[in-house]
Specification:
The structure holds 2 protein chains of 2 kinds. In chain A, 36% of the residues lie in helices and 21% in strands. By secondary structure, chain A is α/β, with parallel strands linked by helices. In chain A, strands 7, 8, 10, 11, 12, 18 and 19 form a 7-stranded mixed sheet that branches. In chain A, strands 5-4-3-2-6 form a 5-stranded antiparallel sheet, with no helix packed on it. Chain A is globular, with a radius of gyration of 26 Å. Chain B is built from 15 helices and 16 strands. In chain B, α4 packs antiparallel against α12 and α12 packs antiparallel against α13. The chains are: A alpha/beta, B alpha/beta.
Chain lengths: 453, 476
């Protein structure tokens, strides 16, 4: 069996309130008009559109509408004649203040104009958080069906991970960029995203931190702190430049998280300059941040900083340099930071978490619980299989042999279930899937042959 | 520095705190309107309360320029925040900027929320002993629950944890490198204060850390709060020489490890409203930090001080001639890494005051007359835990010994072999159970030292014994 692979360390849209859902757009210039299924119309400016999902900017904020919520879209219609921002709705009724929206089950009808949001965790303290084992792209892909089942509009991925396998980074980036973002407003909420976790989140434009959040330290290494070097390092630096573009971040930021600010420390890495030095300026008028891949051009030096030569953002630095869009310690603060005046956080209340647990999150938790059990006990499953097989081979009496073959089957079944729950165990222990399948078939054949003997 | 080096994994996490009292104070100052916080969603309705009864509250205001007026049933409302009176409101002073700005709130004023009996109920939680063994999450969680059951206004956490590094007991503490990683142990404790109290308490208590000694992993615990008091001989530190910790591999990877660790530690200070650069001064020998005392608190500079500007050196670069002498280190007067003393803590506005006795502390909190100590079970919970852990360790050692020395009783037949296996399985099950229950207080070094196997190995031994039994047959 093969062993572990390379390790990578262990303005948000303001979704609107009920007011906005009823067509008040007093100052809108280019007016687009949506007719909702319930007959009401909403006017505003379409600021984003993807696969039929419309983000409509209205006087009350920006609201996202899925195709199932509207019947007609009219572009650039005349502004509503009654542009008086009073409290009347399209049907003339009085508008209430934003109301409390309790979390509801998937089957219930969604409230028009109120986005449904859910939190999915990317690792946890209790069960595990290693990227590639406890947080897998396959697992997050599986979660999509639960998010869709619950008609989720906003997927908040709560990161709490100390890193993991480098090879999972691109998979996550592709998944978030190509599959999540078209379907959901995808948000990263960073409690801790170190190394491969940060690299996985980097394709997401909308990042918030918890006050204690951290993000960075993405240097690839293996074994006894041996750095990734040469072509493989150049490759991942290049990959992360492309991923930075997906997330809308300066490539210099990720480079500063990956390689040292010091030339002497970069020299053994066998890569082309520049180093990971990073400085920045902040325009006092506009707040715009300009990044420089050196220690001298910008007023603020981020790498090196504080005596270390690799960048890790904390919530203050991330916010100051506009890497994060805000800081939120709980779901209410996150709601505010995301500019949501009304939102339905979907899921069941659970005293362990500050957010409701949606179906996708239930799946994630189950996945990690099982993965932890399997990761801890895999060697035992395997040892028991080998031992039972050995004892079976030594038995002359078919009945006695059958008892141990039963034990061997049981242990093999545990291994099969382990892989079924988390296919990355194949990668970690057999390498290729074909090797695993070959091994499994061989073991089953041995059992079968022994049973026939 | 031939010291013990501990290299932890990078799988580490942090937690935040919004110190209830400071947040409440900030909110009170921030709000120029009344605010209703609704249940379930925590949506805030801002405006002016125009009518209120025992069961209803009516609020009017403007939302996006649009007037509204609405009545809520109080059962829908989690809390009502009243608008601060203008005379009290000074947004500049009242909203402490984490780090650079000192906490302005008057502690005496903060403590004035009296309980129904007209007294401020406080709970004294004494955390005394070895961090990660005596001071660990299970008993603390139990004690905090006890405080909640007693509906207290204030929890005073007295922290007295000297530096203890398993396997490095005979090394002078100033020579220990690698104690920094004990903060990851502390990260199992902080959620109790940072996440669980805000989530589980209806009326959040003010949590005050009263530090006697907070060294090693315990050093970062008080920083999750802006309410720190220190005794006159108190120290916060013992996590220095981080960048001397790793000696293997490439420099770039070493710095990755330092960077992620500091990233974690920064979060603690930020969430407690402290300047995160202090942690670099406490941990990185090469890091230079100076400060200038001002009426509004210290201003920090990441360079040598300019004495003409009244600036003072906190830590130098610790290189060559600046390396602390043995004499300085023995006396705790070095400046390669920062150890926060009571005096310095006060000067840097880390500590709000120096108190050697509970009466001193209560006086400083402004509750010397109104304070009412709740006779909780904190002491019995904490000492009971220490006793339980000690007993558990003894029992584990005995079980390992019994397991290793057990033999088949004469005449050594099938029944005796079966009985032995049964007894061995029972011992192993007991070991598993103890490890599971006290895992948080059993460090790897101790387990290794006494030959206590990990739980999974114990389960494997049980599996093997069961297969042995399957294979065994009564003697003919």
């Amino acid at each position: 069996m093969k062993s572990l692979l390379k390790m990578i360390g262990a303005s948000a849209l303001t979704l609107g309130i009920a007011l906005a859902a009823v067509g008040i757009a007093p100052h809108a210039q280019a007016i687009d008009k949506l007719t909702l299924k319930d007959g009401r119309s909403v006017e505003g400016e379409i600021i984003r559109e993807q696969d039929g999902v419309i983000w409509l900017k209205t006087a009350g904020g920006t609201i996202m509408y899925t195709p199932s919520e509207y019947t007609k879209l009219e572009r650039s219609v005349d502004a509503a004649s009654d542009a008086n921002p009073d409290t009347k709705t399209a049907d003339g009724s009085k508008v209430d203040a934003p109301a409390s929206v309790p979390a509801s089950d998937a089957g219930k009808t969604r409230k028009p104009g109120v986005p449904r949001a859910a939190v999915i965790t990317y690792g946890d303290e209790e069960n595990g958080n290693m990227v590639g084992i406890y947080a897998t792209a396959a697992g997050f892909r599986e979660a999509i069906k639960y998010l869709e089942e619950e008609k989720i509009d906003i997927a908040v991925i709560r990161f709490k991970s100390g890193g993991g396998l480098a090879l999972e980074v691109q998979k996550f980036s592709d998944l978030f960029h190509l599959e999540y973002k078209p379907k959901f407003r995808t948000v990263a909420w960073i409690d801790s995203a170190i190394s491969a976790a940060a690299m996985s989140a980097h394709a997401i434009e909308e990042i918030y931190f918890t006050p204690q959040g951290n993000y960075g330290a993405c240097t690839g290494f293996s074994g006894a702190l041996n750095a990734m070097k040469g072509r493989s390092l150049e490759q991942i630096l290049y990959d992360m430049e492309k991923i930075s573009a997906r997330g809308g971040y300066s490539p210099y930021i990720m480079r500063a998280m990956q390689i040292s600010s010091e030339e002497a420390e970069c020299a053994p890495l066998g890569i082309a300059p520049p180093t990971g030095a990073l400085s920045a300026d902040i325009d006092e008028d506009t707040g715009k941040v300009t990044w420089y891949p050196d220690k001298t051009s910008g007023k603020y030096v981020l790498n090196p900083s504080g005596g270390v030569h690799i960048l890790t953002f904390n919530s203050e630095t991330a916010s100051k340099f506009k890497f994060s869009k805000g800081t939120a310690s709980n779901i209410d603060e996150l709601t505010k930071a995301m500019g949501l005046t009304e939102v339905e956080w979907v899921g069941k209340q659970d005293k362990r978490f500050t957010w409701p647990v949606c179906k996708a999150e239930e799946y994630m938790l189950r996945f990690r619980v099982q993965t932890k059990q399997d990761e801890t006990h895999f060697r035992r499953y395997y040892a028991n299989f080998v031992e039972a097989l050995g004892r079976a081979q030594a038995q002359q009496d078919p009945a006695e042999r059958g008892k141990f073959l039963g034990k061997a089957r049981e242990a093999l079944g545990m291994i099969e279930n382990m892989v079924k729950n988390n296919s990355n165990f194949i990668l970690l222990n057999w390498g290729e899937e074909s090797e695993y399948k070959e091994w499994l078939e061989e073991m089953k054949k041995i059992i079968k042959d022994l049973a026939r003997r | 520095m031939g010291a013990a080096v501990m290299l932890a994994t990078a799988t580490i996490t942090g937690v935040a705190i919004s110190t209830p009292s400071s947040v409440a104070a900030a909110m009170a100052f921030d709000e120029s309107e009344d605010v209703l916080v609704l249940k379930d969603t925590n949506i805030e309705i801002k405006g002016t309360i125009i009518e209120e009864s025992d069961s209803k509250v009516k609020i009017k205001g403007k939302l996006h320029g649009i007037a509204f007026e609405r009545e809520y049933d109080k059962s829908e409302v989690i809390s009502i925040r009243r608008a601060a009176k203008k005379a009290d409101a000074d947004p500049v002073k009242a909203a402490p900027t984490p780090g650079t700005e000192p906490v302005k709130a008057d502690p005496k004023a903060e403590a004035k929320s009296e309980s129904e009996a007209g007294k401020v109920k406080y709970y004294h939680l004494k955390l005394d002993g070895q961090f990660g063994v005596d001071v660990t999450q299970t008993p603390i969680r139990r004690a905090v629950k006890d405080a909640q059951n007693n509906n207290v206004d204030i929890i005073i956490v007295e922290l007295n944890c000297p530096l203890h590094m398993p396997g490095a007991e005979h090394i002078p503490e100033d020579m220990i490198v690698g104690a920094f990683d004990q903060i990851f142990r502390a990260e199992h404790i902080t959620p109790i204060f940072v996440e669980e109290i805000p989530r589980q308490w209806t009326k959040k208590p003010r949590v005050i850390f009263w530090v006697k000694e907070a060294m090693g992993g315990a050093a970062l615990l008080p920083f999750i709060s802006s309410d720190i008091y220190m005794s006159s001989e108190a120290r916060i530190g013992g996590i220095g020489y981080l960048t001397d910790m790793l000696k293997v591999g490439d420099k770039v990877v070493q710095h990755k490890q330092y960077s992620l660790r500091l990233g974690h530690a920064h979060g603690w200070l930020i969430s407690g409203g402290h300047d995160f650069r202090l942690i670099n001064a406490m941990t990185v020998r090469e890091y230079v930090l100076s400060y200038k005392p001002t009426g509004d608190g210290p201003i920090y500079f990441e360079r040598q001080p300019d004495p003409l500007q009244g600036e003072i050196l906190l830590t130098d670069d610790g290189l060559e001639g600046n390396f602390d002498s043995t004499q300085e280190r023995v006396r705790g007067e070095g400046n390669d890494v920062l150890t926060v003393t009571a005096k310095l803590g006060k000067e840097l506005r880390i500590s709000k005051g120096t108190a050697d006795t509970m009466n001193d502390l209560l006086f400083q909190l402004g509750i010397d007359r109104t304070g009412l100590q709740v006779k909780g079970r904190a002491d019995s919970i904490m000492t009971g835990w220490s006793r339980e852990v000690s007993d558990a360790k003894k029992r584990l050692r005995n079980l390992v010994n019994e397991y290793a020395t057990a033999t088949v009783r004469p005449p050594g037949g099938y029944d005796e072999r079966k009985a032995l296996r049964g007894a061995q399985i029972s011992r192993l099950e007991q070991m598993k159970s103890i490890i599971k229950q006290y895992e948080e207080a059993l460090d790897q070094f101790w387990m290794y030292q006494y030959g206590i196997p990990p739980e999974v190995n114990i389960q494997k031994a049980i599996d093997t014994l069961k297969m042995d039994q399957m294979q065994d047959k009564p003697d003919r």
